[in-house]
Design a protein that fits this description.
By secondary structure, the protein is α/β, with parallel strands linked by helices. Helix content is about 40%, strand content about 15%. The protein has 17 helices and 13 strands. The strands form two sheets. Strands 9-8-7-12-10-11-13 form a seven-stranded mixed beta sheet, sandwiched between helices. Strand 5, helix 3 and strand 6 form a beta-alpha-beta unit. Helix 6 crosses helix 7 and helix 14 runs antiparallel to helix 15. The model has no long low-confidence stretch (mean pLDDT about 95).
Length: about 550
C-alpha cells in the first residue's frame, strides 16, 4: 500500500489543517476540539446577522465534501467524522451552537443510519437549548429501486448549493428547509466504478476481477447493485445514463447534470466521459451542467457518478449563483462546443508533383524498414524513454510514403520544402518536428547543392532542439552521415558514418538532451539511442541495390 499519510488516526485532523492553510481555506476556521470535534466553519459568519446557518457533514474520505463546501453561498459549517464514520453527537452539537443565531439552522444529512441518528440527536439537544433547528435527509441514490432507505450520495452537494443560496438571500428557516426538501426530492444519482476503494487497510484486496466494474455503488466502498463487464467509455456511460433515465418521472422537464469524479479517475478521462454523456438519450433532458470534477469522492475509487436535479426557475437560479467555495466549479448552460474555422494554412503541395524513379524507390525502401522496425525501436525506447520512438518514426514513414504521388521528387529544393510542410502538419513527436525543421530550413537554403542545404537544416535542428553531436540523440547518427554526404563520400561510407554514430551512443553513459537526459547514470550503459538507431537503420535501407 503506497499512500501519503502518517497515521490513520491523525489523517483527518492533519488533512483539515492542510485545508485551512491552503488558498481554499483562507476564509475558514475550525473549532478547538480535536480529535473528537472536527468542525470547519466560516470565519466571516455572524450569528446575529439574521441569516439561517446551513450545516452538513459526515464521514471523511469524500473530499472536497464536506469541508470544501464551507463558505458564502453554501455551507456555514461542516462537521467531519473519521474515515467513512459519522461524527459524534457532541461534535455536531458544537457545530450547531457555534453558528446558530436567532434565524436558526438547517442540517443537510445524507441518508445513512449513523448520520441520521447522530445529527437527529444533536438537533434534539439543540432544540432543548432553545435553538431553532430543522433537518433535511438526502436520499438521491436510485440504484436500489424499492428500497425504503435510498442512500445519500453526490446529490447531497446539490442540496448544499440550493440551501446555501436560499439562506444567503435572507430567507426564513421554514423557507430554506422547504426549498432544500424540494430540491432533495428532485435529485437522483447513480455511480459506476472500475474499482472499489482502499480505506488505508494494509490487507486490502479488491473484490473486482480485472474485467469487472460495478454499477450502482455508494460512497463508502460498499458493493454496487450489480457487477458489470468492462466496455468502452461510451458503453459504460450509456449504462449509467440509461439507468438514471429509467428512474425519472415521465415528462420532458429540464434537468441539471453534475458529473462527479469518485476519486482517482484521470482528468482527461472525466472530460471524455462528459463527451460520452452527450451521446446518450438522457443528454436531451439536460439544460445545465456542473463538472466534471470531484464533488463527493470515495477515497481512491476509480469511477464517476451522475446526478440529475429537475429544474424550476428558482432551482436553476440557486445552482448558478456565485459562491465562495472553490470546490464548487459552477454550473453553466449545457451546449454544443463552439467551433470556429481553421485559418488558411500554407498549401503543403504547392509544388507540382514530379518523378524520380531512383529516389521514389529509396523512399519506399526507407519507409518499409521504419515500419518493420517499429516494435523493435519502441522496445529499445522503453528502456530509456516512453517507448514510442518506433511508432513516431513509423508514422513519419507512413506520412511520406502516402504522399509519394504528390511529391516533387525531381526537384530537390521543392521536395525539401514540401517535406518540411508535410511533416509539420502530420508527423508527431519531437523527431517529426525536428525532421520538419531540417527539411524546411534546407528547402529555404540558397546553397546550390542539396547536401550543403541539409547541413544548414541540421544547424537549425540544433538551434531549436537544443541538442548537439555527442549529446546522445539522433543527431549522433544524422550529423556524421550528412557530413559525409556533403563531402562527396560514397554511399557505403555515408552508411558507415550513420551506423558508427548510432553505435557510439551506446557507450555514452550520460545523455545531455532529450528524455534520456533525465535517466540516472548507469541505466543507459550499452543501450543505443533509439533515434540514432532509427537513422542508422534508415540509411542502411537506402543502400543502392539493396
Amino acid at each position: 500500500m503506497k499512500r501519503f499519510f502518517n497515521t490513520r488516526e491523525r489523517l483527518v485532523p492533519e488533512a483539515l489543517e492542510g485545508l485551512l492553510r491552503s488558498p481554499a481555506g483562507k476564509d475558514l476556521c475550525r473549532l478547538d476540539g480535536y480529535p473528537d470535534i472536527k468542525v470547519i466553519l466560516r470565519r466571516d459568519w455572524e450569528r446575529g446577522a439574521g441569516k439561517v446557518a446551513v450545516i452538513s457533514g459526515g464521514g471523511s474520505g469524500h473530499e472536497p465534501a464536506h469541508a470544501g463546501f464551507v463558505g458564502r453561498g453554501m455551507l456555514t459549517a461542516a462537521v467531519c467524522g473519521s474515515l467513512f464514520a459519522s461524527p459524534g453527537v457532541d461534535a455536531i452539537l458544537a457545530g450547531i451552537m457555534a453558528v446558530t443565531g436567532e434565524a436558526g439552522c438547517l442540517l443537510v444529512v445524507k441518508n445513512y443510519t449513523g448520520d441520521r441518528l447522530n445529527f437527529g440527536l444533536a438537533a434534539e439537544q439543540a432544540r432543548a437549548l432553545g435553538l431553532k433547528v430543522e433537518m433535511v435527509i438526502v436520499g438521491d441514490d436510485i440504484s436500489l429501486p424499492g428500497h425504503r432507505q435510498a442512500r445519500g450520495i453526490a446529490g447531497t452537494v446539490i442540496v448544499h448549493k440550493a440551501a446555501g443560496h436560499m439562506a444567503e438571500s435572507g430567507a426564513s428557516l421554514e423557507r430554506v428547509a422547504a426549498f432544500a426538501t424540494d430540491v432533495a426530492a428532485r435529485t437522483r444519482s447513480i455511480g459506476l466504478s472500475l474499482s472499489d476503494c482502499d480505506t488505508y487497510d494494509e490487507g486490502h484486496a479488491s473484490r473486482l476481477a480485472a474485467d469487472e466494474g460495478e454499477l450502482g455503488l455508494g460512497i463508502h466502498g460498499e458493493p454496487g447493485a450489480k457487477r458489470i463487464a468492462l466496455a468502452d467509455a461510451g458503453g459504460l456511460m450509456t449504462l449509467a445514463a440509461d439507468a438514471l433515465l429509467a428512474a425519472l418521472p415521465e415528462g420532458e422537464a429540464r434537468h441539471a447534470l453534475m458529473l462527479n469524479n469518485l476519486g482517482t479517475t484521470p482528468v482527461i478521462e472525466m472530460s471524455l466521459l462528459l463527451e460520452a454523456f452527450a451521446a446518450t438519450t438522457l443528454a436531451r433532458r439536460v439544460a445545465l451542467v456542473a463538472g466534471p470534477a470531484p464533488f463527493m469522492t470515495a477515497l481512491d475509487m476509480n469511477g464517476f457518478s451522475l446526478t440529475l436535479v429537475e429544474l424550476t426557475d428558482e432551482i436553476a437560479a440557486s445552482l448558478q449563483a456565485d459562491v465562495a467555495p472553490t470546490a464548487w466549479t459552477g454550473m453553466a448552460p449545457w451546449q454544443e462546443p463552439t467551433v470556429i474555422a481553421v485559418p488558411d494554412l500554407p498549401d503543403i503541395f504547392a509544388a507540382a508533383p514530379s518523378n524520380n524513379p531512383a529516389l521514389r524507390d529509396a523512399v519506399q525502401r526507407g519507409a518499409k524498414v521504419l515500419l518493420e522496425n517499429e516494435e523493435a525501436l519502441n522496445a529499445l525506447d522503453a528502456r530509456i524513454g516512453d517507448g514510442d520512438a518506433g511508432s513516431t518514426f513509423a508514422e513519419t514513414a507512413r506520412v511520406i510514403d502516402g504522399a509519394l504521388d504528390r511529391l516533387p521528387l525531381a526537384d530537390p529544393q521543392a521536395l525539401m520544402q514540401t517535406l518540411g510542410r508535410l511533416l509539420a502538419r502530420h508527423a508527431g513527436g519531437s523527431s517529426g518536428a525536428l525532421l520538419s525543421i531540417l527539411f524546411a530550413t534546407a528547402g529555404r537554403s540558397e546553397q546550390a547543392r542539396w547536401e550543403a542545404a541539409l547541413l544548414e537544416g541540421i544547424v537549425a535542428m540544433q538551434r531549436y532542439g537544443g541538442a548537439r553531436e555527442g549529446d546522445r540523440t539522433m543527431l549522433d547518427a544524422l550529423i556524421p552521415a550528412v557530413r559525409a554526404l556533403d563531402a562527396g563520400a560514397a554511399w557505403a561510407e555515408v552508411v558507415r558514418a550513420a551506423r558508427g554514430g548510432a553505435d557510439a551512443t551506446a557507450k555514452m553513459g550520460k545523455a545531455e538532451a532529450g528524455r534520456a537526459s533525465y535517466i540516472p547514470d548507469g541505466q543507459l550503459d550499452n543501450v543505443p539511442d533509439p533515434g540514432a538507431e532509427a537513422i542508422a537503420r534508415l540509411f542502411e535501407a537506402l543502400i543502392p541495390g539493396r
